[in-house]
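Researcher: Predict the fold of Extracellular solute-binding protein family 3.
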Amino acid sequence: MKRPFIPTLLLLPALLSAGVQAENTVGRIDLNANQLPIHAPRNPQAVSQIPAGFRFATPGTLTVAVSTLSSPPLSVLADDNKTRIGSDPDIARLIADSLGLTLKLVPTAWEDWPLGIATGRYDIAIINIAVTKARKERFDFATYRIDTLGFYVKNSSHIKAIRGPEDIAGLKVIVGSGTNQENILLEWDRQNRARGLPPVAPIYVTDDAAATLSLLSGRVDAFFGPHSIGAYKAALTGQTRMVGRGPTTAWVAVTTQKGNGLIEPISTALNGVIQSGQYAQVLDRWGENDEKVTRSVVNPPGLGE
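Model: Structure tokens for Extracellular solute-binding protein family 3 follow.
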């Protein structure tokens, strides 16, 4: 019997309450167990690197911008419909613990994090931010994940593979505004138009449930975005499949104000939890095993360099 469609945003709280497990590339995701925080001990080396007199947005607290969207496994509401969980909040907690600070998560729209970081409203941002040449001119970065992109379609789609520009000609593709995947999609479209191929139609949807419904109803042809998000949905619902990866790989990084001195202790904190195992616990339980880093690096080469 065909499984009824329930938008992801509405489905997750019910699944969390029921303790449902979802298959993923490394095993099973226990949605109920994943609400339990993973903590790290205070890291004296990281604490000692915080600049003397550094002014946090709130004294004694690490204020972290995280996604306001429901984008599992990166960020999603728990079954109380108010607590933010996911791999990004988990990473934020490990950093705060390591620095001996209280954690404050602030759900933030993608377009708002740059100003929030620049003005000191947030100490750091963890919103699946990829390192790019342009962003490095304004912010500092400490890597914590490999960023891969994926094309996903509904299971019954006629699309078998997307490997290059010609494969997206004439398609309607969901993509995030102002993202690296949008840049790739628009560049591929430019190449197609120059060859006389049908244009691609970028579809900008900010609500996750609406995006899922659009894809499964056939109103759009494909989703192009973070592989971790696409893979999680495919494992959770069994209604979509990956048909290709993006042409570039980048670093996802914790983001701070440029030159304020906070990025070194953050990188040290990340390397501490990488070595002690809490970092692996986080990525493993959210199905991101294939996006782990072995070491956090400050300001690595970014896209466009």
